[in-house]
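Shipment paperwork, digital attachment
Item: protein structure file
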Amino acid sequence: MKRSENLARWLGAGLGVVGGFLLGYFMVRGLGSNAHPGWAIIGLTTLEGLIFAYLGTPYLLGGWRRVNFRLTSTPLPDLLSGLLGIIVGLVIAVLVGVFVRDLPYGYYLSAVLALLLAVQGASLGLTRRNELAALFFGGAQATDGHRMSGVLLDTSVIIDGRILDIAKTGFLDMPLITLSSVLRELQTVADSADVTRRRRGRRGLDVLTEMQKEPAIDLQVTEDETSPNGDIDTHLVRTAKRKGWAIMTNDFNLNRIARLEGVSVLNLNDLAQAMRPVAIPGEEIVVMVAREGKEPGQGVGSLDDGTMVVIQNGKRLLNQTITAVVTSVIQTSAGRMIFAEPSGVDTRRTSTRPKPREESV
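Attachment content:
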């Protein structure tokens, strides 16, 4: 990667030298060689072309990478709506240009006006795609009949990666939206000097790339209508509230702020908690007694999904895998907790040395 960047920089410097030389040559021809020393002007413009091209090539390469990533990651409907916005902007520029051409520097003003209106039309088409669809096709077409018109993806839920597997199952049938500010945050993390942060950022970008390749996943990359000022969480909440979208996150603080603002929140940790197997009182479970409990005689174990199991009279069965009967299930802030008692059959089987039977006299 470093060698290719150096090669591109030197190629750009070569083009800068050629461009500077040509610029100086045509300047000398236009000014006349008698009034100015031609070799000095050509040498100066050539040197300027070399310096500016050598220093500016990395910025051009970075901009090209960002544009290429945006084009490849933006859904086709967004690209079409942006193209439609450009066409509308150019049509308006042509109509206004009829009156501007008669002014001084009218043609230059028309060109600048066309560029500005084309950029503004593209931005309007990208950011207002749902509203435009609702205007031309009706509200039912815009929301596609979903309970939620869209779900904003937070950085934490993208880096987590479980969203990819969940979306593949088809349970999420609403558009999944990623703001450009979130993409920039992921790119910043991926370029971090810290190895752990860099891996997390690259994992997030890989997750988005895989989601875009899945035809069943409606992933949309949307430009920010307003620039986020400092706190990205506040920006996400305001955007979701303004657009009527929900937020999907694993961040506890963002979860609380969004709910206080009246924004719907989809939390993957809550989903994982809800998907744990439900134990019914009277059902038998197999558990290993790993340690002692807080109360006298209690033993504590856990199921494969991490659910804590408190076993009454289980202290004497430490480090043994037993069959226990569920007596009750409670839900706490830390998760689900199961209370159970050793099964009678397993109690006899795994009990310690049996007491000798007294002989009758």
